[in-house]
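The methods section describes the discrete structure representation at length, but only in general terms. An entry of this sort, consisting of the sequence and the corresponding backbone structure tokens, reads as follows.
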Amino acid sequence: MKLVIFSVLLLLSIGLPNYSSVRIAQEAGNRGTPVVVTPLGPKRPEPRWSYSDSSCISDSIREVIRDAETWKSMWRKMATAPGCGVVGQVPPAPEIDFSREMIVVATLGERPTTGYGIAMDKAYEVADRLEITVRSITSKCGGQAQVVTHPIDVIRLPKTDRAVVFRETNIVMECMRSPFIN
């Protein structure tokens, strides 16, 4: 807990842009050997937010995908869930070498604005399992579009047959009042 408090204070002291505080609801168990996590999709600036906010998946899910057929099925579900309104053909799923890699998908479910995100950016081998940190993010700043979103994150990891455990962390970002406005 002391490490979490220190980290938050450090972020605030070095200037976390646009946010005055970060509240962490649950500390993730980050003890073990780090595993390389590669986000699927284009490189985005840190801190990572989500792969997309329009996955069309209305449920909150955590899924480990270890084969091409399951991956293609998930890709179709990501693009064509009921109510999604996708017109035309679904683009082909990114090619994954499932002899060496696996895919992990985390969705937040349906949300009422663009102020929500989900990100998986840490994984650890711990004893006989793989632990993946999932950050569910809520922004309390104004200016979010009042539109239904379906945040999703998709990562690649080295293939393993270990059991996978998801360590959930809830983060609430609050707006920082500008020093230039009275």
Summary: The chain has a mean pLDDT of 76. Residues 2-14 form the longest helix (13 residues). The two ends are 35 Å apart (CA to CA). DSSP finds two helices and nine strands in the chain.
